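Annex B. Sample input.
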Amino acid sequence: MTTITFTPMMPTSLIFLMLTAAIGLIGYGLFRGARGVLLRTLPILALLIAISDPKLMRENRTPLKDVAVVVVDESASQQLGKRQQRTDTVLDGLRKNLKDAKDLEVRFVRASHNETGAQYGTRLFSALTAAISDVPSQRLAGAVLITDGQVHDALTPEQATQIQAPYLKAPLHVLLTGEKEEYDRRVRVDRAPDFGLVDKPAMVTLRVEDTAIAKGTPISVSIGRNGGKVQSLTLPAGEPTEIPLPIENAGANVFEVKVATGLNELSETNNRTLININGVRDRLRVLLVSGQPYVGERAWRNLLKSDPNVDLIHFTILRPLNKDDGTPLNELALITFPIRELFEEKLNDFDLVIFDRYSQRGLVPLQFMANVADYVRTGGAIMLTVGTEYSDSFSLFGGPLQSILPAEPTGRVFTGSFRPQLSTIGQRHPVTAELAETSARNSEGNNPEWGRWLRQIQVQQSKGQPLMTGREDEPLLILDRVGEGRVALLLSDTVWLWGKGFDGGGPQVELLRRVAHWLMKEPELEEEYLSTEAQGGILSITRRSLAEEAMPVTVTFPSGQEQMIVPEDSGKGKFTAQIPVEVPGLYRLTDGANTTVAAVGSPNPLETYDVVATAELVAPLVQAAKGGTYWLEDGITVPAVRRVAPDRIAHGSSWLGLRDNKQFVVSGITQTPIAPVALILLLVMAGAMLAWWQEGK
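Annex B, continued. Sample output.
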C-alpha cells in the first residue's frame, strides 16, 4: 500500500502561518495589479513544499491467516441414534470445504468424554475458549460446534459479555446432529439426604419426566436396595414426589431407582438412578449390670460413657439380698433394682446387655433370666466379663443363660500372671486382628507382647470362636452367635490392668470397643464380610474371611456383564483387589455367601440425564454472535462455507459464513522524497528569474 506522508522541518502551525501570509501578499499584489505576482507564487510554494518535506511511503505487507475453530462433541449422548453418523459426515465435508482456503487456519477440537465428564456434563465452550486463547479477536473468523445441543457450560449472552468471552466476537454456528422430534423418559433425584437413621425411613424426592405424555400421568417405578429387595410404586410424570426409603443397616444403603422403559425411547441409561444413603445408628442403649464392686468396674462404664452415641444405664449391686447387717431399709441411700422394668418390659429396647462380674444370688429371678436368653435368640446381644463368681455355685452358667453361653466353667481359676495372646482365629478375626497395630510394644510374629493379666477362669468350650488365649493356651475371649443374636464371654476380670499401664499395658479400650460393636452388628467387624468402594475410576474390593483360601468375587457391571476377580491375601483376614471402572451405575459384587453393591458416578449425571437434542441451550449465544443454527436432519448434509466481510450477514439457510478479516503484518517500509532539493532550487530560481523578467518589460 502506497501513501503520502509529511515530515515538516518546523511546527505545522508556523507553516500554515507562512502559507497564510504568502496568500495574503499574493492576493494584495493581484488586487493592486502588480506585475509578476503569479510568477512569485512559484518560489513561495516551492519553499513551503521543501519545508513540509513530503515523501511517498510504500508498506511491505504480509497477509495473516484468519483462524476458524471446529469443535466436535464426542460425549456419550452423541452415540445415540444417527448422531455419530451425521457427525462424521459433516466433519468430513467441512474438512474438504476448508482445506483449499489458503488464508484460513482451521483448528479441529474434540471434546471427549474424559474431558467433559459425566458429572460436569458436556463443556464445549470451555474447549472452544481454550482453542482460541492465543488468537487475537481481529483474526478470529468464526467457530462451528457439531453437537446434539446438550451443552452444559453455555452462558447467557449477558454473562458471556461480562467475562468478555472471545467467541462472541466472530460468527458462532451450531450444527445439530439429533432430531427435532425425539422421545425419552428419565428419572432423577431432586433431593436425598446423605445420612439416615437405621430402622427409620429417609425421605427422598424423585421426579419422573416423559417428553411424550401429559404432566401427572402415572408411571411405574421400581426401587431396589443393595441389589436385593425391590418395591414397586407409581409416580406422576413431571411432578416431584417425596417417598420414604427404609434404612435397614449401618453403613452404605444403595438404592437403585428404575422407571419403566417407554416405547422407542431414545436412551434407557437415564431410566435409572442411584441413591446412596449412609445408615447411622441412633443413640445406642446399653444396660450394664455390675456385680461385686472391684477395681476394674469402671472400665466398661468409662468406655461407654465416652461415646456420645451411647445411652448407658448402669446398675451396681452394692447390697445383695443375702446380705443382712441390720441396717434399716429406710436409712439406706440405695434404690430398688427395677427388675421387671429392665428384664421384661424394656429389655428389647436395649442394643446390648453387659454383666460385669455378676452372679445369680436370687436378685434377678430365673424367669427374667430366661427372658434374657430369649432376647439374645431374637437378635439381642449379651456380654459377660467374669471373675471367680463364674466358677462358684451361683454362676450365671447354672441358670437359663446356660443354653446360650459358649463355655462351661470347670471350677479351676488360674491366679498366676500370664500374657494374653491372639489365637489362630483371632489373628484373622476383625475384632482382634488389628489390635497388634494399637500396641506400643510389638514382638516378632503375629502376637504382640502386651502387659500381663493376673487371673483367668478355666472353661470347657463347647461352641463359639476363641479369639484370645491365656494360661496353658486356654480360651480367654470367646465370641458366639446364638440364633439371630450374639454372645461374648471374657474369662478374666483383670483387663483393667491394661488401662493402668501395668507391665506396659495394652489396648484395653480398643478391645472392649471392638467387642461391643461386634455384638451390636457393626458391618465392618463381621467375620465374613464383602465391601467395596469406588473412587477415582477404581473399584476397590475388600473381602474378610476367617478361611485362608482366596475365594473368587463376581462383579456384575451396570450393563449386566460379569467379571470374576480373585482378591489377593493381604494378611489379617483381608483379601483385596482393584479393577478400573468407567461406566457410571450400580456394580454388584458377590462371593457366593455375601453380596454388596457400589454406586459409581453422580446420581444425576448431566451427561446422561437429558439426552434429547435441543437448540435452546445454545440459541442465545448463537444469536448474540450473529451465527446460525442448522439441523442436519433437514437435508443439510454439509452446509456450504463462505467468507464474508465483517459487516455482512454470516449465515443462510444452507450456508455458513466465516469472517474475512484481511489482517496483515507490515514487514518493511520504503520512503521516497517527492520534492528533491535540486528540484526545489530549480523552481525557486526559475520563479525568481521569471518574475524579474516580467517586471523588466
